[in-house]
Amino acid sequence: MTTRAPAPSPAEAVFPALGTTAVLLVTDPDALPAAEAVLRAELAAVDLTCSRFRPDSELTRVNLNAGNPTTVGERFADALQAALRAARLTDGAVDPTVGRAMTALGYDRTFASLRPEDARPLPPALPAPGWRRIVFDARSRRLRLPPGTHLDLGATAKARTADRAAVHAAAVTGCGVLVSLGGDLAVAGPAPDGGWRIALADDHARPATDHGPAVAVTGGALATSGIRVRTWQRAGRTLHHIVDPATGEPATPVWRTVTVAAATCVDANTASTAAIVLGDRAVDWLRGTALPARLVALDGRLVRLGGWPPDSAPATTPRAAPGDPR
Q1: Is 248 inside a domain boundary?
Q2: Angle at CA 253, nearest 5°, toward 252 and 255?
Q3: Is residue 189 part of a domain?
Q4: Residue 62, φ and ψ in degrees, nearest 5
Q5: Nearest-angstrom CA–CA distance, 19 and 10
Q6: Is 233 helix (H, G, I), strand (E, B) or coil?
Q7: Would you say residue 159 lies in a domain?
Q8: Residues 134-161, mean pLDDT to the nearest whole number
Q9: 1 in a domain, yes or no?
Q10: How many other C-beta atoms can be found within 10 angstroms of the C-beta atom of residue 106?
Q11: Order of strands, edge to edge, in the sheet holding 70-71?
């Protein structure tokens, strides 16, 4: 008779990043330092490339140069192509040209720096100029934004970072890796027995309960978008950070959270964000994608699509809950 030693418990690193919480899990505890170095490098690179709030970021330079042709770096080109693909797949429900609308709503600095209550009047809404007006040559990396257009790559850049970090860390360490950046979660490499157990919640930062729903993830990614966490008051109105590009206003509240599973975190994030924007049209649109999805209405009603399983036992690993990049 032979026995097999139990697999070691996953090792974890948790730290603030991109205005949210970064969580890293690895199946081999000895691999944690190397995997964390990969994740921190990816986070530093995307912050320098895509932050709306850094005067030295490449995004800031591109936005200031709107109306003129400019050549962008490889990482920026990668982030932009992910954003343009998201816009195309959602017919503009997720649109990177909402930067000025976000600023007009008062989200013009890191969320931690926003005043929770701002009495200043809201300026007129600014519908997005539209992603189709962007001229970009992927081969030469030459970009021209319409005059006055500001990009906001936050809807996809954070998810792309989770994908990149998970795949790279798994390649470097040879073990299973989970990367969670707020509401964006990607896994790579061999999953632990039974998969990664992920709690589902409205807020990733709140302590986990012992009776909340959970889902097992063995590959691919999850993303959760919601309207309850990133909110602020402006002129007596409660605003949230998911903007409808067609109006320049926060998306009409229909769903408290939407969680989607997909092969990549970018695709999962694209679908979950689009569902919040689409509101009453989200269920039919998500059915068309065939992606597993779990929608929670404002009154707590659940809608499961694409074979999403019934809520199961609680999890002991990170939460799939809404977050937002800086």
Answers
A1: yes
A2: 130
A3: yes
A4: -65, -45
A5: 25
A6: strand
A7: yes
A8: 96
A9: no
A10: 18
A11: 70-71, 142-144, 135-137
Helices (H) and strands (E) in the chain, counts: 7, 19
pLDDT surpasses 80 at 189? yes
- For residue 16, how many other CB atoms are within 10 A of its CB? 9
R_g over Cα of the chain: 19
pLDDT mean over 264-291 = 98
Which pair of structure tokens corresponds to residue 252?
A: 């009409």
Q: Put residue 97 in one of left, alpha, beta given phi > 0 → left and psi -120 to 50 → alpha.
A: alpha
- Give the angle subtended at the CA of 148 by the CAs of 147 and 152, to the nearest 5°: 115
CA distances from residue 224 to 180, 221, 251, 271, 300 in whole angstroms, order as listed = 11, 10, 16, 9, 16
Give the Cα separation of 217 and 65 in Å (integer): 42
SS3 259: strand
Task: Specify the amino acid at residue 324.
Answer: D
Q: Which residue has the tokens 């997005």?
A: 128
Q: What count of other Cβ atoms lies within 10 Å of the Cβ of residue 197? A: 17
Give the separation between CA 306 and CA 254, rounded to whole angstroms: 20
Lowest mean per-residue pLDDT among 78-82, 189-193, 214-218: 214-218
How many separate domains does the chain show?
1
Residue 257 · residue 224 · CB < 8 Å: yes
**Tokens matching residue 123:** 């300026």
How confident is residue 212, by pLDDT bands cut at 50, 70 and 90? low
CA distances from 109 to 14, 103, 118, 229 (A): 24, 8, 14, 16
Q: Specify the DSSP element, H or E, that contains 158.
A: helix 154-173
CATH number of the domain encompassing residue 103: 3.10.520.10
Contacts of 127 (CB under 8 A, 6+ apart): 101, 245, 246, 247, 248
Q: Which domain holds residue 237?
A: 11-320
